[in-house]
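Aim 2 progress update. The chain analyzed this quarter is reproduced below.
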Amino acid sequence: MDRWRDWLKESYGKKLSRLHAWNAWVILLLAITGVVLYVPTIRGDLGALRVVLKQAHIVLGIASVVLIALYLPLIPKHWKQLKTRLKQRWNLAVVLFLLIGWGITGLILWQFHNLPPVWSNVSLVLHDLFTWVGIPYALYHSISRSRWLKTMRSEEQKAARQLLKDKRETAGVAGAETGSGSGEIVAASAMSPQKFVEFLKNAPISRATFLRTVIGLLLVFGVGPYFYRWMKSISDTGGAELDQIYASDANQMQPKPVALAESSPPVGGGLKGEFRIYTVTDIPAFSSDSWQFSISGLVDKPITWNWEQFMQLKRKVQVSDFHCVTGWSVYKVTWEGIPLSELLQMAGVKGAARYAKMYSGDKVYTDCLSLEQVKMEDVMVAVLMDGKPIPNQLGGPVRLIVPKMYAYKSVKWLQAVELIDEEHIGYWEVRGYDNDAWVPGSKLS
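Predicted structure tokens:
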């Protein structure tokens, strides 16, 4: 409370200066944490630290919103002060637009579990777009207004004034000797000091102008190709990007599963959206020579299938949406596989069993569903996606699909299910994620 009173007593100038400094640090930290969370090659190596980093990013985002709220009462006076400084007004408008955009989309992504998935999908794209534009803009703004360049500009202006003084003195001497000076010197001496300084400031040979131009071009050419790839990826609705993933599939599984008629062509019409590839370990690859799938634990008859035996099991086809907890979705995916409840029936579920623990073939990732959740008709052990074998980058050759829950429940590279009597806390749940990951609007059925 005392700090709040001290803040209210601060002068306008000090408030503005403090907010500018605080905001600069918050944006820097937001940029660092955001980029680390965004880049797949980095975030994949973070493991549990990813959750901590995500929480830090959220806290920093809230701090940014608070700073905007503190600045709002100062805007009218600040805007008025910049009446004759159009460039600074433009900069202020751009910065406010980016900060407010980041804040609104960030709040929606933070509260994704209370909102329809489409809100998160749109907000994630816009949040990324603000980041692609905002970080290079902030870098350019920070460097171009750095003390180093300001000192250079000041030195240029000082030199310009000295040059003007020298020219005027030379013109005076020449006029005294000849009665008139040369045309060039007369023109220079006739130009007012301020106009001459402005002329030199805007000259193409200005070092500060040259360096700002170089910095801008470096940012454009450095960030541009990555921004272009990002634009292509968000406009790719299951086309070129997915073809590349299929082409680079490292699994060696023989025989290949033959799609049912409903999967080829896919009854869902083909998936819409882009998968973002996340993993807590290196992406594993599998061979049919060593692959196996097991049902064990509290069952009457533990079962293990090899790949050829697993391919002979009767499969079903379903169309469902795939929602990630980070805000993106892929719609109308046609999955083909075996309902998990049917696999458990083959093994015989004992009365003491309450939960099904899932094991990933990466030997790290685990998760858990209650038997009531397992009995949902759309909980599937999938082997085909849109009529094609699931590539290892997307969790194949076999992965779990739980459409009514966020994707961290849909265990990739699924190889074993163990029935247990007490709830197992999965890999991400231990690290702060909800045990029940219901997508808004879904329910147990």
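The CA atoms of residues 64 and 361 lie 41 Å apart. Residues 147-178 form the longest helix (32 residues). These observations will guide the mutagenesis experiments scheduled for the next reporting period.
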